[in-house]
Structure formats: structure tokens, C-alpha cells
Amino acid sequence: MNPDFSYLSEVSADKGNLIKGLQLVQGREGYVSDAAIHAIGEYFSLADAEVEGVLTFYAQFKRVKPGKYQISACDGTACHIKGAPLIQQWLTDILGIKDGETTPDGLFSISTVACLGCCSLAPVMAVNGRVYGKLDRKALVKIINDYKKQG
Amino acid sequence: MADIKRIKVGTASCGLAAGAGAVLSSFQRLAGEIPVVEVGCIGHCYCEPIVEVELKDGSSVFYASVKPDDASIGDILNLTDKGRFTVPAERAALEKLCVTRLAGRINPKDIEEYRANGGFGSLKKACGHTPAEVVEMVKKSGLRGRGGAGFSTGMKWSFLAAKNAPEKILIMNADEGDPGAFMDRSMMESVPFQVLEGMLIGAYATGATKLFIYCRAEYPLAIKHLTIAIEAIRKAGLDRLPGREKPLEITIKEGAGAFVCGEETAMIASLEGKRGQPRFRPPFPTDSGWNTFPTAINNVETFANIPVVIADPEAFAALGTPKSTGTKIFALAGDLKNPGLAEVPMGITLGDIVYKIGGATPGSVKAVQTGGPSGGCIPADKFDVKVDYDSLKELGAIMGSGGLIVIGNDRCMVETARYFLDFTHRESCGKCTFCRVGTMRMWETLERIVAGKGQESDIDFLEDLGNKIRKGSLCALGQTAPGPALSTIRYFRNEYEAHVRDGYCPANQCKALSDVKLDHDKCVKCRLCVKNCPVGAISGDTFVVDNAKCTRCNTCIEMCPKKAISRVKKGEGFNSANGGK
Asked: Given 3-state DSSP classes, what are the helix, strand and coil percentages for chain A, each rounded to the nearest 5?
């Protein structure tokens, strides 16, 4: 097996753990590359196509390398009612990228998610898992600029 | 400070998002000898961060919307009156805290504190009876599945208990996928031991040997607290049930973002490492489930109810209505003052929840969406409906998992339906043609209507197709997906008609059917809008919004301190593209 993915042995090679294996790889690499799919297939004794078939079924898995700061823009019901489409539009205005894309400098990527479970603070988004609530344009610009400054 | 026994900071996801992390570290720095602990959520999410100060005399004082600066923290340590929080009397009278009694009040990571508050008493009581007697108690309590379908929990358990198999599986459905519902997250974060106690009792009653918790990956804190709790339960030996040779196997599996995996056969497929597609029933999971072993699946809230049920099945059955017993936790969100969680007895009116608990202003609410994308909307004039499984169904909505999204007067119902179909058509697993293609066609039609390109016949088409999707889909996702469109057509047909006949969105929410206009009588020429417009659509000389350039992004409307800018009917705003009118 590709030595880059030898950490797969942290989960047992039982086929029931395929999703766990994919999550492990994505947790380490940030996405699931072609090489990773092949390594996972070898490890679980599955064809690459079967691995890809399971992977593409689940929204969590990414096949493109995400940015350093991964923005999850919530579009759950409460956030949608409270203006999530505007948040998404503003993010696109500010960063010049759409849902599923990464900025050319590799700093930011946006993905729209169903619900972060913080509906009472709608509209919300998360940057690398940290949740920001009650967003308006001003707050959004500040959050993005703060991350830009950090580089 | 001398009277303070302990300080509790609510650091569930909602609290953390509101800034509880900074509040916690300030207390840790300033509280000196006083222990500071992290607790979960008491449900009043609208005034997070919340701090509870436990006094030595056994009473407690709550503070709401706490700021992390030294002065504010110092004030609380001196037990100032400022910022004290009490549950409004009107709300307190309606709520009945049984299942959430300990949520946000105890340290979720401490098994001893849970025990000291009566924890594991029900497990002990259950183990003193035969498994069959425990199933009987659950049956007698009338408890119905809190995940949405409302199937009798006791019945489900009796099916699994009757099976003879080398392994029996019990799964906790923690894949809370309904956008707008967060009671399961809160329970797992705040009282993981209570949820697991329910599961242990379930394992005892049904003879289950392997327990799975299928939790969405979006809930990292819930997974963390459950992991800690499982470890503590193992250490305490509580996973060794009487009469069993081996301890229970308890495994947490993270979901990977597929809404359909909340359906039980899809969840089982996902647990087997496959694509999470539902399959035909029968065989029911209790006959052939995970890797063909008999399997039962219950929701998080159902398990959280079990310790309450076992403690006193008769008292539980006396709560609520005869056919829907006990309490239900509702997640309130949307256009209301007090979003958060509320636990109320079944049978309370929807109006009481929305107005008296949620604090929505009467007259400002158009409808409530229950049951998320699988549910339907209930218009404000039907708010005297008693909330239980059966009455909501009669109105074309469902109880679902208990998410209540309040929709204000300024929201467009067609857009709301479009939003839900956008969600379901993407989440359809693709197995059944009616669901896969049908929800896509419904979504396209709704997109067309909100874009001002709808036709009169579109409304009937949506109804016709919606009813066919209901009949032609295998699982609940497809069977319920048309709900939001069908119920909005049922109650708000006039809004659909305005869109397709007059090209008019009554709520002025649909971008293609509205203009933006600045009211010069209210304008104070502060230029905030001019400066912040991302496309330069507002003139700095005349303060007129040019709708040819405007993208309807609402930035100016939000920023204007005088509320001088608003959405108006298409054609009423200035537009340079059609000769300045």
C-alpha cells in the first residue's frame, strides 16, 4: 500500500469501516485524492469504483483540495429564513469564489452546509469549525479580513 | 463571593457560538478558589452566553448575555442584580421540564454528578425487573418515537425482544438532519449520560448485544461528550448487564452528510459502509437489519425519555394527551424573539409555543413550518391546533423531530417551498424515479415561479406531481418531500397566483419580482449605503437606487440607520435601463 496512507491501519479493515476510513483520510489530508481512493480500495479490498461510489454519495467528502480556512456557510431552514442566501452572495462578492471553490491563493474555500445546529443564532457560518452567529455584512467583512490578516 | 459554591458556564455549541469560550476563561482567571465548570444548554439559546451561579444555600442565580470583560465578570462574582435572568413566568407555567430537567444544570462529563442527581436510578430499577416487564412498562407509558414517525417504542422493543439471534443490534439515530432541529444535539451535549442510560435500559429490555450511535459529523462536541460518557460507563461497569456474560459493545459511527441516512434502512446500509440508500420493507429491521441481525433504531430524544418513563410509567402516561403521552422538546427558530429549546407537554396549542414561549409578536407571524423539509406549514389562523402526532397530520404537516420554524409576514411562501425542494431534490438518494426526477421537476418549477416566469398551470402541476411523488417513493424522504410545496399551495395559494398572474411577490422577497427604493423623506444623507453598495448602484448625488445595477443583496437595507431603503414591487423603483422609470 502507498506508504503515505499507512495510517489507515488505525481502523480495522472491515468493510463496515469504509466511511470511517474515508473520514480518517479526509481529516488528515483535507480531501480525498485519487491516490487516497486507490489506497483505501486496497486496504478494504474494494475496487476503486466502489470506494468512489460510496464517497460521492456523502456530501461530507471532498475531491478537491480545500483552502486553509474552510468556510461552511449554513443554509439550514432557520439560517435561510434569516438571510443565508445573502451571506452566500456576500461571501462570493468578497472572496470571488462560489460554493465548492477555493481561492487561487489557497486561503479560503466555501461550502454550503445543511445545518450547523446553531439555529437560534441564525444566520451562522463556521470557519474551520468555529461558529460565527448573527451575521450581517459588517460582521462578515470583519471576520474575513481578520483571517486574511492572519494569512 | 463568599456565598458562591460553584459557577456554571453553558458551553454547548450554541453557547460557544455566542462567545461562552471567552466568558469561561475570564471566570477561570478571576474566580479564585470557586470551581468553574462547563455545562450544557438550558434551552434559552436567545440569551447565551448564560452563566449559573450556584450558591451555598442551594439556590441558583442565572445571568444572561454575559460579556467576558473583567468588569462584567466581577459584577457577577459580586452577585449584582444587573443582567440577572429568570424564566418569564408565562413561559415557566407552560413548560414541563422532565426530559431536560438536568440539561445545562450538571457537568455533562461527570458521571458522579449525574448519579448524585438521580442518574442511573432507572437503569437500576429496570434491572430489578425482567426484560419483558421493562418492555411492558414502556408500552404502558404510551411513549412514541420522538424521531418523527411516532411509532410505539414499546412495540418496537417487543419485536426485537422476541427474536432469537446470536447478536441483536440497537441503534441510536443521532443523524439529526432536519435543518432547524437541534434538540438531539443539545441532549447529547448536555446530558450524554441520560441518553446512554436510556440506551442501556433498551439493551437490557430487548436483549441487544451491540449498540451503535449514528451521529452526524457536524456535531463534534456531541461526539466528544458521548465518547467521554461511554468511557466512564465502561469504567463503572454499567455496560455489564445482569445475566450477560459479555459487556455491551458500544460504538459511535459518524455520519457523512446524507439526509436520507435518517431513514432506518438507509442508516443500516451506511453503518455497513455502503451508500446510504433505503431498501424495501419487509423485511423490517427487527427481522433483518445490520448485517442481517435483528435491529431496532430509536431516536436520541426517545432514549432520553426512557429514564423518565421507567422512573414512573403511569405518571408519564398521565402527561400529554391520551394518544400522545409525555412531553416533547421543540426547537424554535426563525422570526421570533426567543429562539431555543422548549419542553412542553403534548397537546399544548401551537399558538402558546410560538407566542408565549417563543415570544413572537402576535400579528407578525404568517405561518410555522413543522417537521423541516419533510413537514408542512401551518398558517397563523390555525395556531389553536393542539400539538400532537395526529392533529398535525390532519393539517397536512407532521410533528417530525420537533423543529418549529416561525415564518414572519415579510417572507414569501413560494420561496420557502422552493428552498425546501432545493434541499430535498439534492438529498434524494436517487433510487426511486418519482423522488429523484419528481423532486427535481418540482424544484425547477418553483425556481421558475420565483423568477417571475411561472404559468398558471404550474400550480396544478405541482399539486399533481407532488401527490404522485408521495405515492411513488419507497421511503419517507420521497413520501414527505412534496409536503412544503403542497401545504403552502393549500394555505397560501393566493401568493402562488400573485407570482404567476401578476408577476408580483406579495412579500417583496423574490429578487426577480422586486425593486429597491430609497425613501427621500426618511433619508439623512449619511452615505452609508453609497459607501457599502458592492456594485455602485446608489448615486452619491441624488441618493437614488438604480435597479438596473442593483443585485438585491440587501446590504443597504440592513445598513441604513433610518430604515429609509426597502424592497418594493417590481417597477416601482428607479431603473436606468428602461428610460429612467
From this structure: 50, 15, 35
Q: What angle do CA A74, A132, A73 make, to 5 degrees?
A: 20
Using an 8 Å CB-CB cutoff, list chain A residues near B16: 131
Q: Does residue A50 or residue B579 have the better pLDDT?
A: A50
Q: Which domains are present in chain B?
A: 4-86 (3.40.30.10), 111-313 (3.40.50.11540), 327-408 (3.10.20.600), 413-502 (1.20.1440.230), 512-578 (3.30.70.20)
Best residue in A62, A79, A120 for a mutation probing chain B (most B CBs within 10 Å):
A120
Dihedral (CA of B66, B67, B70, B71) sign: negative
* Chain A nearest CA to B522, separation (Å): 22
**Are B419 and A80 a contacting pair at CB < 8 A?**
yes
Give residue-wise pLDDT tens across range B307-329.
999 999 999 999 999 999 999 99
Element (H, E) at B55: strand B51-55
How open is the CA angle B198-B203-B205, to the nearest 5 degrees? 90
- pTM reported for the whole predicted model: 0.91
DSSP state at residue B142 = T
State how far the Cα of B221 lies from the Cα of B63, in Å rounded to an integer: 23
Contact B318, B192 (CB under 8 A): no
For domain A69-150, the CATH superfamily is Glutaredoxin (3.40.30.10)
B161-175, pLDDT tens digit by residue?
999 999 999 999 999
Best of B11, B14, B16, B341 to disrupt the A interface by mutation (most A CBs within 10 Å)? B14
What gap in Å lies between CA B258 and CA B206, rounded to an integer?
29
pLDDT, tens digit, for every residue of B169-207?
A: 999 999 987 877 899 999 999 999 999 999 999 999 999
∠ CA B36-B38-B43, nearest 5°, is 130
In this prediction, residue B538 carries a pLDDT of 94
Helices (H), B275-396: 300-311, 313-318, 350-351, 389-394
Q: How far is A2 from chain B (nearest CA, A)?
A: 22
CA distance B275 to B261: 9
> pLDDT at position B83, please?
87
What percent of chain B clears pLDDT 90, i.e. is strictly above it? 87
Domain residue ranges in chain A: 3-57, 69-150
Beta bridge pairs of residue B342: B330
- Residue among B40, B56, B44, B48 nearest B8 (CA): B40
B54-94: per-residue pLDDT in tens? 999 999 999 999 999 999 999 999 998 888 999 999 999 99
